Recombination protein RecR (Rhizobium quercicola), 402 residues
Amino acid sequence: MAKRVTGPEIEKLIQLLAKVPGLGPRSARRAALHLVKKKDQLLGPLADAMVEAHRKVRICSCCGNVDTSDPCSVCTDARRDHSCIIVVEDVADLWALERTGAMNTAYHVLGGTLSPLDGVGPDDLNIRGLVDRVVKGEVRELIIAVNATVEGQTTAHYITDQLDGLDVRITRLAHGVPVGGELDYLDDGTLTAALRARTAI
Amino acid sequence: MAKRVTGPEIEKLIQLLAKVPGLGPRSARRAALHLVKKKDQLLGPLADAMVEAHRKVRICSCCGNVDTSDPCSVCTDARRDHSCIIVVEDVADLWALERTGAMNTAYHVLGGTLSPLDGVGPDDLNIRGLVDRVVKGEVRELIIAVNATVEGQTTAHYITDQLDGLDVRITRLAHGVPVGGELDYLDDGTLTAALRARTAI
């Protein structure tokens, strides 16, 4: 803004909101105005929630999940099957898989994928911790649920190599047609995989 | 989420972020994770900015702008021409007009438009304050810059009626073809208005 039309505190709020993923400079202004208008219903509680989250948030030293306790809610949940670990790239993937409610297992967050071009090596990921968990025993199966990208697959292979000789079953997510997906719009690789892995009706 | 995968403080943060315009439940989760990952670079400063904004934000008692001082930065800016007031529906419109840098005037925020169906009458808007400002004198021109909707135009007419007999020039924004706009995509009303208000090249 050329001339000042509002207070520096509000400009600062807009500036920081614009850094939140999903908000740009324009929507940050809209968001800030909305927050300011709903001062006591939204801005206040949100401010408190942020202060609280900032104070309490922890990265789980066992699985890498984000929580306010360490070990996290997943690692300490006695109703889960901790002999099966789903390996994911990111906490968002853990939450997404958990929303399906399909499994009731433990997780392990790598914190990314191997990517030599970006300077991400094995030591930058939480792979050592994963191997330790498997070595300690009591892990029956490892489901490697990384993204189906080149980096993801490289990471999956690297992990498999690291666990060579250990008594653990290593699996990965099935490739195939997304539920509700239209064949016409799918790439050749997915279609080929779906054909190869066809199942009896 | 079916089972708890993260702390209640983080779930609370996601819940509140989802109420911010521009963010939905899915992007709120993504935003929360990003904030938590950038705990000290983003979450902390944003929390502070919100606490500060919540503590300091004021609605200008003169023009209705949002600021941290009352009267606001616009009303107290001696370099502005306070004999010309641009009347807008919302603070967002004030900021948008101010970004153009086209005018160097005072503003007046109505806080909405007359809308009998939604139960918004003249007393729900900041119209009394506007009339007072004009009655006090020293206002030469009022530019009514409300949206070109039925409610906006009704509000403009109502304000004009209220100021009947006072020595002030009342104008409104020109209708016409948006800069960069294609005629083919414009509605008949806009094209008719643009033709009627044609100017010499």
Summary: Chain A has a mean pLDDT of 91. The longest strand of chain A covers residues 81-88. Strands of chain A lie at 58-59, 66-67, 81-88, 105-109, 141-144, 169-172. Residues 80-172 of chain A form a domain with the Dna Topoisomerase Vi A Subunit; Chain: A, domain 2 fold (CATH 3.40.1360.10).
